[in-house]
């Protein structure tokens, strides 16, 4: 069961890594929390990597 879960999650992990390490664009532009007061992180709106990032 554990390895199946890892297989299912692998593409999302890869995507997250690419978003965090990639040179183009900021995570915040694609983040679910990038509106109003939803996010108060200091790295907003120019986060290159963020533990709270969640895609919209
Ligand atoms: S949670 Fe992280 S990626 Fe999302 S808006 Fe806040 S700083 Fe940006």
For the structure shown, list the relevant keywords.
56 residues; mainly alpha; 0% strand; elongated; binds iron/sulfur cluster
Architecture overview:
This protein is mostly helical. The protein has one domain (1-48). Helices cover 36% and strands 0% of the residues. It is built from one helix and no strands. The chain has one helix at 2-21. The radius of gyration is 13 Å and the shape is elongated. It binds iron/sulfur cluster. The site of iron/sulfur cluster has 13 residues, from loops.
What's the layout of helices and strands?
Elements: H1 2-21
Iron/sulfur cluster (SF4) binds next to loops.
* Number of E-state strands: 0
- Percentage beta strand: under 5%
> Regions with pLDDT < 50 over 5+ consecutive residues?
none
Radius of gyration over C-alpha positions, nearest whole angstrom: 13 Å
Structure annotation, total helices? 1
- From the spread of the alpha carbons, the general shape counts as elongated
The helix/strand order is H
Structural class call reads mainly alpha
Overall helicity: 25-40%
Kindly give the count of domains.
1
Overall pLDDT metric: 86
Distance between the termini: 28 Å
Q: How is the biggest beta sheet arranged? A: none
